Amino acid sequence: MGATTEQPAAATAPESKDPLLKFFRDEPHRASTAEEVVRAFTPAVAKDPQKLPAAVQDVTGKLQKLLEAGHITEIGDGLYKARLFFDKERYIEHAFIGGMGNTRYRFRSPIFRLNIGVLSLFVLRDQKAGNWAVTVRDTTIGKDYSFTRRLRDGAYTLGSQKPEHDGERYIQVDGKYIAKRHVVVALAGEDIVVEDLKTLNGTRIDHLTKEGLARFREVAREFLEQADPRSHREPVVRGQFILNKLLQDHQNFESAFFSVVVDSLLLERPAGA
User: Fold this and answer.
1) In the predicted model, what is the mean pLDDT of residues 9-36?
2) What is the 8-class DSSP label of residue 6?
3) Which residues contact 170 (CB under 8 A, 6 or more apart)?
4) More exposed terminus of the chain, fewer Cβ within 10 Å: N or C?
5) What is the rounded CA–CA span in Å between residue 170 and residue 221?
6) Rounded to whole angstroms, how far apart are CA atoms 135 and 149?
């Protein structure tokens, strides 16, 4: 797995001038091996079988330092890409796969979201039950299918047409721009691998960073302490709480991830609590 160190809010001046870091940030959707980096920077060395191993070893060492600093992530064995954040948001990390470079993405998180066509699938690790709960949201009609499926660890295929065989390992999703076989998700504890089956539109993955999860859990606990227990599961009440956090405390939380984190805390409570 890649390093879990959180990325700083902004790169320092020396880091911003690092040509290797710039190489990854210029194309944040693509992943590269050390050999591919050598080929990009020194094509003549890459063609020399005697010089190539030493060059690859040198680049690998530099990549490890960027990895430890939290600037890049290792999405596969020896396969690196830039960490991507939007709008100066440092708590939710994003990745595009399939139509925008790499087709396979590895990460670690107890809560993540897959954006496939117009659908958003939130996948939440239920630590007590030892399985995953899936929530499907269709943004075109505002439909929310809460916890429609429980997944054990293993590999699942997501798509729009259920196969004749092995239906237990297939999650059928209906929505625009979804291919018959779209995404394979392999779950093992909090270790996740998502593979886009080279579809035209690709897949976006969003997951909370370690710091982000802690921050969202803190505000979710605050919500559960302040709100009437009878309204803990009400979307409107949750939305009003987050809006007040923005208006009064100038703290901006993505409401969808906040709601799922609230659900995760509710799952941790004893039955009947």
Assistant:
1) 80
2) P
3) 156, 157, 158, 159, 162, 163
4) C
5) 34
6) 8
The token duo for 101 is 């470079």
Strand ranges for the chain from DSSP E: 72-76, 79-82, 92-97, 104-108, 111-116, 119-126, 131-138, 143-151, 154-159, 170-172, 183-188, 191-196, 203-208
Q: Indicate the DSSP class of residue 84.
A: B
Indicate if the pLDDT at residue 18 is higher than 60.
yes
Q: Which two tokens stand for residue 117?
A: 């066509």
* 39-56 per-position pLDDT tens digit: 999 999 999 999 999 999
Q: In this predicted model, what pLDDT tens digit does every residue of 188-230 receive, in sequence order? A: 999 999 999 877 778 899 999 999 999 999 999 999 999 999 9
The answer for residues whose C-beta is within 8 angstroms of residue 2's C-beta and 6 or more apart is 67, 72, 73, 74, 75, 106, 107
d(CA 41, CA 36): 9
Global pTM? 0.83
Looking at residue 34, its pLDDT comes to 96
CB 124 within 8 A of CB 221: no
Lookup: tokens for 219: 């505000």
Q: Which is it for the CA torsion 117, 122, 94, 240, positive or negative?
A: positive
- Which single residue is written with the structure tokens 């190489």? 23
Torsion of CA 41, 69, 261, 183, to 10 degrees: 20
pLDDT at 9: 38
DSSP 105-120: EEEE-SEEEEEETTEE
Q: What confidence category does residue 155 fall into, taking pLDDT thresholds of 50, 70 and 90?
A: very high
CA distance 21 to 264: 35
